[in-house]
Amino acid sequence: MRIFSSSRPAIEGFLVSLLVSACSLAPKYDVPQTQEVTAYKEWAPATPADTQSRDWWTAFGDPKLNDLQTQLHDGSQDLRAAIARFDQARALSTGARSNLFPAVGANASATRGRSSGNAPGSSGIATGNDFLANLQFAWEIDLFGRLRNAAAAAGDRAQASAADLAAVDLALRAELATDYFSLRGADANIQLLEDTVKAFDRAYDLTKNRYDGGIAAATDVDQAETLRQNARSQLADVRLQRAQLEHAIAVLLGQPASRFTVEPASLAYNPPPIDAGLPSALLLRRPDVASAERAVAAANAEIGVARAAWFPVFTLGGSGGYESARNATWFDAPSRFWAAGPAAALPLIDVGGRSALNKQARAAFDEAVANYRKTALVAYQEVEDNLAALRHLADELAADEAAAASAQRSAYHADRRYASGVADYLEVTSTQTAALQAQRSTLDARVRRLNAAVGLVRALGGGWSREQLDHPAL
Prior knowledge:
- This protein folds into 2 domains: 1-24 and 103-117 and 126-141 and 312-345, Outer membrane efflux proteins (OEP), CATH 2.20.200; 31-101 and 144-311 and 353-469, Outer membrane efflux proteins (OEP).
- 59% of the residues lie in helices and 11% in strands.
- The chain is built from 9 helices and 5 strands.
- α2 (63-75) packs across α4, α4 packs antiparallel against α7 and α8 (353-419) runs antiparallel to α9.
- By secondary structure, the chain is an alpha+beta fold.
C-alpha cells in the first residue's frame, strides 16, 4: 500500500511528526561481560622491560630483525590483502551513512516517436517529439532508525576490520620474529655440527691409524665412521631446515625465495624481560578481542534494523523540470512541471518473514557474544601459556647447560681413557653422542625461549590499544 499527497498541509504534518517521533529500535548496547581475571596464574619476570611500544621487536636488540620487520611492512602481500579488506569495510560504512541523506539526480532526454493507432484508448496514429529535462529528489525519513542502525552496524564492522588488520599485522610480525630466531638457532646448530664433523673426522683418522698400527680393532674404525657420518646427516638436515626458514621469511616479506638471503649470524642474546601487565587491561590491548567486541556491537545495531521492518518506511520525494513537444519551447515558462510529497509503504502480510528476520538478528547477536567471550578466554590462555613457557624453559635451559657441560667433560675423559688403552671405543662413541645431543638440546631451549617471548608479546597485543580503532594507522 502506498499513500501519496502533494498538499502543503500534509507535508507540514508529516515533517512535524518526523521531528517529534524519530527513534531507534536497537537495544541499548553494553559490552558483554566476561569472567573476571585479577591475576595471572603463571610466573612473570620480576624486572620487566617496556615492550608495550608498537615496535616491540626492537627490545630484542637485533638490527637484522629490525630491518626485516621494516621490509615486512613494505612488502607483505598478506598485509596488503588485510588493508584491502579494511578499505572495503570502510567504503561499505561510508555507503551506509550516505543513505541517511537525500539523493538528488538529474536527467535530460530528447526523443521522437510514433504511437500505435491500434493501442487501447488510442485516438489514432501520432508522431511527435518529447524534450525533457528534470531534477529528482528522494529522501527516506529514518523515523524508526532503520538507516541509522544500518549505518552504525556498518561502522562497527569497519572498526572490527581495522582491528582485524592490526591482528594480521601483529601475527605476521610475530611469525617473522619466530622464523628469524629459529633460523638463528639453525645457524648455531650448523656451526656446532660443522665443528663436530671436523672433530669426528680427526678422531676417525686417529682411529684408522691406530688400526693400521695394530693397536685398535676394526670395530673401532667402524664406530668412528658411524659417528662422523651421523654428524654429517644431522648437518644436512639442519641446513635443509635453515633453507626452508629462509624461504618462509622471503614469502613473508613478499620476495622470491630464489633472490632472498639472510647471512648466517650467531644466537648470542637472551629474550628481554616482558611486562605482562594487569589481566584487566588485556582485553583492551588485543586487536582480536576488539574485533570480536565490535562484531557484537554491529549485531546489536542489526537487531534495530530487523525491528524497524515492522514499521512503515516514510519517504519524501519530488521532481521538477521542463518538458515540451517542441525544441523552441523546451525551456519556456509553460513547459515547467513539478511534483512533491511524502509517501509511506508497509508490507501487510509476509507469512512470518519479518518475524524470522528478527529471530535471525537476535541469534546472530547471541553468536557474536559467545564468540567474544571465547576470544577473551583464548586471550588469557595464550598469556598463561607463554608465561609458563618462559618460566619452565628457563629451568630447562639451566638443566641443559649443566648437562652439556657434564657431557663434554665425560667425552673428554673417555677420549683420554681410550688413548691410554683403559676404555674401548664404544665408551668414546656413547659419550661423544651424548655431548652433541646435550649441546643441541641447549640451543633448542634457547630458541624456544626466544620464541616464547615473541609469543607472549603477541598474546599481550604487541603494544596495540583500542584507542587506535577510531584512527587506525596503516
